[in-house]
Structures are given as structure tokens and as C-alpha cells.
Amino acid sequence: MHLRITVEEEADFGLGPFAVNYDRNTAVDTTIPIFIDYNTILVNYRTDGPSFFSYLMAFGWEVWLGLILSLLTISLIACFFDNVMSNNLKTTGWISSFPEYVWKFYGNLLYQGSSQQRILHHQRLLQAFWCLIVIVLMQSFSGHLMATLVMKRDVQINSLEDLEKSGLLPGVEKGSSLHSMFMYDQEPLHRKLYYRMIQQESKSFLKISKLVSDPVLELVKKEKFAVVCDSLAIKSALASRYERGGVCDFHIAEEKFHRLILVMTLRKDLPKSVFREINKSVFSLVEGQLLTATINNYIGKYRRCIGRKQEGTNPLSVEDLQSVFILLASGILLGVFTLLLERFYGRVRNI
User: CB atoms < 10 A from the CB of 40, how many?
Assistant: First the structure.
């Protein structure tokens, strides 16, 4: 029902519900609030596959840094130990052989074995611990990488800020309080969105019946348009679309803004006793939750028109793999201890 019918006294009572604003409040009388609603954003449900860098981001940057430092550390220690055992303590000698050790331990990352023939006990320990953490790291990497390739990231528009960044054309109900908010509010974000809307004014400011119609929803599905209006109208349109068998998978933004107080309207010159009786009936209706239950029953199927949120994957952090680096440190300490034992045993034999 249009509010004009009540204003022109063609009807005594307007069921609506109507959102309260100054013009409506001066033109007609209103009942107590029957429903509190909020404006939100309707867009297409979007998914994003893995990017080029997602192959590297199976590990967090801290893990990659830790892996590189671990490779250099264990290579340096192994090189130093071997030169100590061969009594070659000249800095130039063992530093010049350092790249060979880096290459050897790097080869282990690619599951390549060592070609070294003479292996001492401390070398075996370092090699064993390094191979163990390589197995853990590579299995973690391959498992997480597979999950990254299979799962799609959630990249939804959930706020007006996201909408502004997306470049989509917003559409609002023409003449609504939301229209006025974008028009007069000096908040920079609202000004940017309003400027975008007035560039295509005929497409952005529509009657509510057209704003949530199938042709507009098709534009939303093609990611050319975003509907910005009260959530009740959005959910009602999606429920109807689902019942008609239309293509769904939409997304309703998490952000709710610009509260709407919905009321019924009465002709201005109605007797006060009639006004009180109607308000009393409306109060009983609201308090008994009958209206809320009726609305939820009517629009409940909108959920079937909402895209499913998939659980994404996060890069593995140092906390996730800290035991690997602790294991490597333990192996290095054990290698140092074994080296000392070997040196001690060598000296005892030479006595």
C-alpha cells in the first residue's frame, strides 16, 4: 500500500510497514514501532581461487626465513665440525668448502641423499635430524598446499568500505531515508559512494519494487550492481526468488547500518480513542512475537539463496612448526656433544 492513500484520506489505516522519517511523521500519525530493521548490502557471492603467491604462502614468511637460516646454520656447523676433525682450522679452508655443505643440505630438501663416503658419528646425527625435519616440513608444505589449491578463499563484500573499494555501482531506494543519508552526509565514504551513484542516477535510484526485482538481481549476479536497502526487503526478494527457482548464491553483508523504525500509519483526523485502541492491538501483536514469527516464516527461505561459506586455510606459522626448529636445535646440540666425544676419544687413542 502506498502512503499517499492514507495521506489523501482514501484509507484510514496503512499496514505498511513504513519507515519513519520527518515528512511521513508530519503527514500521517504512526503506531508504536512494530519492527526494527537495518540497511545492508546485497551482492553476488564471490570466491577466489589460489593466486601465484598462494603456492609460496603455504608457509608464513617467518617459516621461510627460519628454514633458510636453519639451512645456513646446519651447513656452517657441519662444515666447521668436519674441519675441526681434520685439524684444518684455517678460516679460508673451511669457509671455502661451506657452499658445498649448503648444496648438500639443500639437496636433502629435494629428497636427494648425500654422496659423502666418510661419515662420522656427529655427521650422522646432524644428517638424521636434518632429514627428519625435512620430512616434517615437506609433508606439512604439500598437505597445506593441496588444501590451498582445493579450498577457495572467502572474498565477500561485508561493509560500505568494501563496496567502495570493489567499484560496483550501488543502488538505493529513491526518496528513502538512506537516499537522504548518502545525499547530505558529509562522511567521506558516503560522499564517494554518492558521487558514484549520481554518475548513473537513473540506475542507482530506483523504487523499492524495482530495486529488488529479478532484472536487478541478475545484474547483482553478474557483479555489476549492489543493492543497498533494508534487510527485510532483501530477504523477502531472495525468498521469492528461491521459490521461483531462480539462480541464487547471493551474499548479504555483515555490516548493518542506518537503523529503520517500521510502523503502521493512520489518517491524521482519526479519533484519539481509535488511535489508542489500534496502538493497544499493535502492542499486543508485537509483545506476543506473532508479527516477528510471521515475518520469519515468510522470508525464512532466503537462507537457501545465500552462498555457502567455505572454511579457508591460513599459512602455517612458526607456532605451528616450532617443534621442528626445536628438534633441529636439539640435533645441533647433540652433534656438538658427539663431536666433543669423538675428539676426546681420538686424543685418548693417541696417548
Answer: 22
Contacts of 178 (CB under 8 A, 6+ apart): 39, 172, 228, 229, 258
The dihedral formed by the CA atoms of 332, 336, 338 and 342, expressed in degrees to the nearest 10: 140
Which three cell numbers mark 70?
Answer: 636453519
DSSP-derived secondary structure letter, 309 = P
Contact indicator for 267, 4 with CB cutoff of 8 Å: no
Quick: pLDDT tens for 127-147.
Answer: 777 777 777 777 777 777 666
DSSP3 helix / strand / coil % (the chain, rounded to 5): 60, 15, 25
C-alpha cell at 11: 484509507
Q: How far does CA 326 lie from the centroid of its chain?
A: 33
- Residues 84, 87: Cα–Cα separation, whole Å: 5
pLDDT digits (tens, 9 = 90+) for 102-125: 777 777 766 666 655 555 666 667
Residue type present at position 154: D
Question: What CA–CA distance (Å, rounded) separates 226 from 211?
Answer: 10
Q: Regarding beta strands 225-230 and 205-206, do their DSSP bridges make them parallel or antiparallel, or are they unpaired?
A: unpaired
Whose CA is closest to 232, among 189, 176, 287? Answer: 176
Q: What amino acid is encoded at 328 in this protein?
A: L
For 301-350, the pLDDT digits (tens) are: 888 888 776 555 556 566 655 666 676 677 778 777 777 777 776 666 66
* 42-58 pLDDT tens trace: 998 876 655 555 556 66
Distance CA 205, CA 176 (A): 9
With b meaning 16 or more CB within 10 Å and e meaning fewer, what string describes 250-263? bbbbebeebebbbb
For residue 221, what is its C-alpha cell? 549476479
Cell of 319: 607456532
Q: What average pLDDT does range 150-176 have in this prediction?
A: 82
| Cα gap 250→302, rounded to integer Å | 10
N-term to C-term CA, the chain: 109
DSSP state of 113: P
pTM above 0.85, yes or no: no
